[in-house]
Amino acid sequence: MTIKYLYFSERRLRQIAADNDIDLDGKRRWVLRSPTLPFTPQAEVGSKEGRTAGRHAMAKKIEKAIGEHADESFTAVPRVSYAKGRGKVSFARFVGTYATNNAVLLHAQTVDVAGKRVDVCMFGSEEHLRSFRTPAGYPEVGWVSSEAPAIEELLRNQGMDPESPWHEDADEDYLAVEALKVALYQGESLHHREHAGRPWTRDFTLGHAPECEWFAEIFADVILDPDRWDLRGEMEGWHRILIGAPMWARALRPEDVVRYSELRQDGRRLRRYLPGGRRRAAVPMPSSSEVQIEIIEEQPPAQ
After folding, report:
1. Selection from 299, 260, 259, 255 nearest residue 280 by Cα
2. Which residue ranges make up each domain of the chain?
3. Structure confidence by residue, pLDDT tens digits, 105-138
């Protein structure tokens, strides 16, 4: 079977390997060679540095070493330290943060053993992403979450920091909900029902892999309380949300990977005008505070 790594963070793998005494590159041995003499075999003892392992070999070693600590069935009560799964993974840029490096967001959706929905929001660096691109000069003006800096702070601290000014008015549940809204709605210019089933019409989206294996380190893991959240309408079916950092995402059928830049290349625009040519003055955006923004640009091409 041919696979392709769409995201691979060797730096994160090596950090985890160092913390857990995992040898990624194979054992090293010292080598001492005897002098070369005529008609005498050369003796060799000691150490020789092994060949650096490839991506797949490193991933297999990490997965084997972490073992059952990587939750796949989501039977454990939060929180889990590592999670893995197989299925559709969506890729997008993550904007609105103060990071100097370009951030990306990988979103996977699965179910637990009871059939309840589990959303995994994995935030990483664009330098580890392969096979996706944003066309140069392409306008990106869609909705961006005002909670992006708070989510970024959670990731940087690998959990909530009560002393952080970004977390003064937010708890883990709230940021988990906001992170999932970023995964589902970031880049929208119209109401999200107008973008349903057409993620390439949202700004900042890059593509998806229908059949993908992923592995992530988890920093926040919440089960939504129905007494606190209205799990109807926009949030219908939401149950458990994990926030973390991807270690890898590999496409099991690389030929089926969908790149949204290709769907946008024809240059067509979905017009943002009401009947009669009147421009929409405001569009409701997905937010816990019913945010609305003014529309001043044209939407990305549909296909």
Report:
1. 299
2. 4-18+54-293
3. 999 999 998 999 999 999 999 999 988 876 565 6
